[in-house]
Amino acid sequence: GPGIYVSTIPVTELLVGHPTVPSGFYIAVTCFCRDGDCEGAWTDYFDCARDYGALRQRLSAHPVLRRAAAYAPGLRLLRQDGWEALCTFILSQNNNIARIRGLVDRLCRLCGTPLGDDMSAFPSASSLAPLCEADLAPVRMGFRAKYVLDAARRVASGDIDLGALHRLPLEEARETLRRIHGVGPKVADCALLYGFGRVECYPRDVWIKRADSLFPGGFPPEFADVAGLAQQYLFHYCRTCPGAFSPDMR
After folding, report:
1. Is the dihedral of CA 181, 184, 190, 193 positive or negative?
2. Which end of the chain is more exposed for a tag (fewer CB within 10 A), N or C?
3. Active-site residue, 186 included
4. Residue 99: which residues within 8 A CB-CB, separation 6 or more?
């Protein structure tokens, strides 16, 4: 139902609800573990090892970032599976959230391993690599099908080593992903930020481009090493706070 989300990772399934509570930061978790490793799996997924309080304190040195971080102090970056992040951001091109959800759901149902309870896992690169565009027609991903298949074939063949993207120099990691047909600067940065922990990436979508007006001299270089985390606060702030672009708030 509304406010209920189901997520799967290799060792467990998680049902996350967001009850209406005064603080607005409370989540209820029901976890069905397969091997008892709930704590380790979800501690990593929710980036619990990072001190977000210290991050917000550091960002507060800049007035715009201070307001953005204070606007949604409970926000955090999920550490998603790298292949899934890459594939879903390829699907996100020229798309809206509702349609992206539909594409991912149909892709999982068509090609993923059934998990029970009417759920299927996200398909691996190796399971997609042998397919052709006609095989993916029921998903209705259009021009994106050839991009997904090129990514799957490159990953499955070892031409692109996703495991290396965590440690490669940033520009080399970007160029590695941009070898995939259809992956440009924005998709590469989104995949690296969400799927490979490269928090120095600063993906520029329409809202972040609008946020440029809040930084006449450009994004503050002293936050370059955590630019992707700052971007999360900025995106939510600029998209949902009515006064974000008020001249009095700059």
Report:
1. positive
2. N
3. yes
4. none
Give SS3 for 51. Answer: coil
CB-based contacts of 123: which residues, under 8 Å, 6+ apart?
A: 107, 108, 111, 112, 113
Inter-residue contact 178 to 184 (CB < 8 Å): yes
- DSSP H helical ranges for 158-204: 170-177, 185-196
pLDDT tens, residue by residue, 104-115: 999 999 999 998
Name all contacts of 183-190 with Cβ < 8 Å and 24+ positions apart: 183/86, 183/90, 183/147, 183/151, 187/86, 187/89, 187/90, 187/92, 187/93, 189/228, 190/85, 190/89, 190/92
Contacts of 246 (CB under 8 A, 6+ apart): none
List the catalytic residue out of 186, 204, 236, 239: 186
End-to-end CA, the chain: 39
The pLDDT value recorded for residue 248 is: 65
Amino acid at 189: D
User: Is 25:16 a contact under the CB 8 Å cutoff?
Assistant: no
pTM: 0.86
Cα 44–chain centre separation: 14
Contact 189, 80 (CB under 8 A): no
Neighbours of 132 (CB within 10 A): 10
